[in-house]
Each structure stands twice: as C-alpha cells, then as structure tokens.
Design goal:
two-stranded antiparallel sheet; 10 strands
Length: 342
C-alpha cells in the first residue's frame, strides 16, 4: 500500500478537522508516517481494506520491521499535538511495560510513538464485570507508582492542583453558561475540590494515575489461540497525572451505563464504584467524590454544545448519583448514550 494512500477514518477526520490546525495536521499525516517508517526501518502492515485504528486524537497503524517476516508486532501511533499526547511517552517510560503497553521508540517532535501491538478487539468493553474488575484492579495496583528521582515525573500535572483550579473555573463556567444544572450539584463538586485539593494533597498518597482508565483503554496481548488470561491485559492511552489513585475510577462509571440493572441503576452504579475501588485497594468514598468533580466538569464542557445533549445528561446523571441526589428532568438512565454515541 502506498504511503500517501493511508486511509483515514471519516469520523476521525471530521473530529480533527474541527480543531484549530486540524486540517493542516491531517494533510501532514502521510509525511509524518513516512518519516518514521524510514527512520525506524518499518513498513506498513495494513491489509487491503483495513482502516487504521483511532482514538479521540490519534491514529494507530500496524507496522512491522522490514527485516521481519511476521504479520506485524508493533503499531505506530500518530497523535494530533495536545497536552495528553505530550505526557504519554513519559508515563509509558516510567511503567516500562509493567501493566502498560510497551513503548519501543518515540519521536516527541511529531507526537509519534512506536508501541507493542495488542489485540485491537480484546478490550474490556464487553467483558463480564467481574473479570473487568479483577483486571482493572490488578492493573491499578501495578500502575500506581510512587514518585522518585526520575526526570519523567516533572512532566505531569498534580490532581490536587487541578482541583484547586476547578474551585475557580467551575463556578465561573456555571454562571457563564446560564446555570445549566442545579446549584447543589455545583456545590457538591466544589466541596470535593476544596477538601481533596488542599487537605487531600497533604494527607493522601501521591502516585502516577491513568486518568482515562476505562474499559476500551485496556487491551490484551495478541493471542495465538484461546482467550486472554487476566495477566495478559495491559493499559493503553494514559492521560497521566500525579495524585490520588481514586481519581481513576470515574471513567468506569460514565461508560457501560447500559449494563446497569434496570431495577435500580443508581444503586448499581454506586455498587460498581465500590467494587472496582475495593478490588484495586482504593477508598470507595474518595472515588465517589472525585467522580462528582469529574462529571460536573464534563457536564460544563458539554453544556454549550447542542450536539452533545446526551453526553451532558449522562454526566449529570452520574454526578447526581454519586452525590446521592438526582438531577430532575433527565431521561431514564439506561437510555443515556455511551461516550461517542451522542
């Protein structure tokens, strides 16, 4: 396949094109890929008709070494330059393949990484919840490194500092957007920001945190036969920060809402928060608190976007459930869209 004909998924192209500088970056993707293939002596391993995998801000292309006859043991990840992309390599270097995908090579100037190839269809998105909890909890224990002398630690923002910033930004955004949800929910988030941002930083244990650690960001190594074992699963796509590990629980709550019990989805979501926290050795109440903050912040980011009305409602439902009080006027929980579906 010619390099200039690398197919870019339409949904990814539309998403990036809406970002400032996105169209110019998309036009440069073939050049960026060609440079890395040449420098690292690689060739594409896309089969005819296969599209590159993609996330919110990156393309992932299977590749192989030119001198190797296998079907492709690595992937080239080309990210649109943004804050999370710039710290991904630092986190992967610290983890060193222990609980995470292995980083093989990197080119910071182009936000391009060469990574161990995992099974693209082997995420935890459809796995039984008991397996998902076991895998997720074990990985959190592996990934929760304590800061040391290595220079990579200087790359990450502190979660407590983020909370302190939210103390100013959330009420300002809430007012600017016309108070799009009840004040009590905003105040619940601000209370967490004040306690976990100041007191929490002094009395909690700081670790490296994968802040987007949901089911789709856990993949298994490619298997020759049979299904993957628990130990085969690894984390991908870290949006890493330093702080309380409980900050990582929230994405589990705003994904797979449709799997909750229709007889009592609120109680089921609270139970999910508790189960995953305990399996990982975390404090369920601290996980619940951080989920309120994160979903209030998400709700405010969606509030000004009519196309994300469903995402806005989902964030309010999760935040209210974690706060123990429902926001009025929301659709039934199990009808809320999954992230990316709205």
């Amino acid at each position: 396949m010619g390099l200039s004909t690398i197919p870019i998924p339409d949904s990814f192209s539309r998403r990036i094109s809406r970002i400032s500088g996105g169209r110019d970056w998309l036009a440069r993707v073939p050049e960026l890929v060609e440079a890395r293939l040449t420098e690292w002596d690689l060739e594409l391993a896309l089969v005819p008709g296969q599209l590159p995998w993609n996330g919110h801000g990156a393309l992932v292309v299977p590749v192989k070494e030119k001198r190797n006859d296998d079907d492709g043991t690595a992937v080239l990840k080309i990210a649109f330059p943004h804050a999370e992309a710039t710290v991904e390599a630092a986190a992967l270097r610290l983890w060193g393949g222990n609980g995470s995908v292995r980083l093989l090579r990197e080119d910071p100037a182009s936000c391009t990484l060469l990574l161990e190839r995992l099974g693209a269809e082997s995420s935890l998105q459809k796995a039984p919840m008991d397996l998902a909890a076991q895998v997720w909890g074990g990985l959190v224990r592996q990934l929760s490194l304590v800061p040391d002398h290595r220079p990579e630690w200087n790359e990450f923002e502190h979660i407590a500092a983020l909370a302190e910033r939210f103390s100013d930004e959330l009420p300002a955004d809430w007012e600017m957007l016309g108070r799009p949800f009840p004040r009590w929910l905003l105040e619940a988030a601000l209370e967490v920001c004040q306690t976990r941002g100041a007191v929490g930083r002094r009395f909690s244990k700081d670790v490296l945190v994968h802040t987007d650690f949901h089911y789709l960001n856990i993949l298994a190594r490619v298997q020759d036969s049979g299904g993957p074992a628990v130990e085969d699963y690894l984390a991908i796509d870290p949006q890493a920060m330093i702080g309380e590990a409980e900050f990582a629980v929230a994405p589990l709550l705003w994904n797979r809402i449709g799997d909750l019990s229709p007889a009592g989805p609120e109680a089921a979501l609270v139970e999910r928060c508790e189960v995953f926290s305990l399996v990982a050795g975390l404090d369920p109440d601290v996980s619940r608190q951080w989920a309120i903050v994160r979903e209030v912040e998400n709700a405010l980011s969606y509030a000004s976007q009519p196309a994300h009305r469903g995402d806005f409602q989902r964030s309010l439902w999760v935040a209210g459930t974690m706060a123990g009080r429902q926001v009025p006027g929301l659709p039934a929980a199990l009808t809320l869209p999954e992230p990316g579906e709205a």
